[in-house]
Amino acid sequence: MITRTKDDIEALELMQQCGGHFVSNLARAWVFADAENDLRLRLAFGHYLDEYKALAQKAKNRTSAPAHDPTRGGGIEGGT
């Protein structure tokens, strides 16, 4: 049995949705890989997984960022 982290799963989903032809199909295959093939894929293509983990994290940070607080200044209404 393969133990994939939540970050791995999110990265593979993002690879399928946003990756180019090769990366999206690689992710589709990766999802079905057994433990031995998962290791092979990580050794050969782990850089893609790492890249999409970082992109998924950035997307999470962007969606969880607090709304602009006009009392802190810097808005059009005034303040610097």
Account of the protein in words:
The chain has 80 residues and is mainly alpha-helical. The chain has one domain. It has helices at residues 6-18, 21-31, 35-63. Helix 1 packs antiparallel against helix 2 and helix 1 (6-18) packs across helix 3 (35-63). 12% of the residues are buried.
Short note summarizing the structure:
66% of the residues lie in helices and 0% in strands. With 80 residues, it is an all-alpha fold.
Helix and strand string, N-terminal first?
A: HHH
Record field, number of beta strands: 0
Share of helical residues: 55-70%
Characterize the largest beta sheet: strand count, sense, and whether it forms a barrel: none
What percent of residues are in strands? under 5%
Number of domains: 1
The N- to C-terminal Cα distance equals 56 Å
How are the elements arranged and paired?
Blueprint: H1 6-18, H2 21-31, H3 35-63
Helix pairs in contact: 1-2, 1-3
Keywords:
single chain, 80 residues, mainly alpha, globular
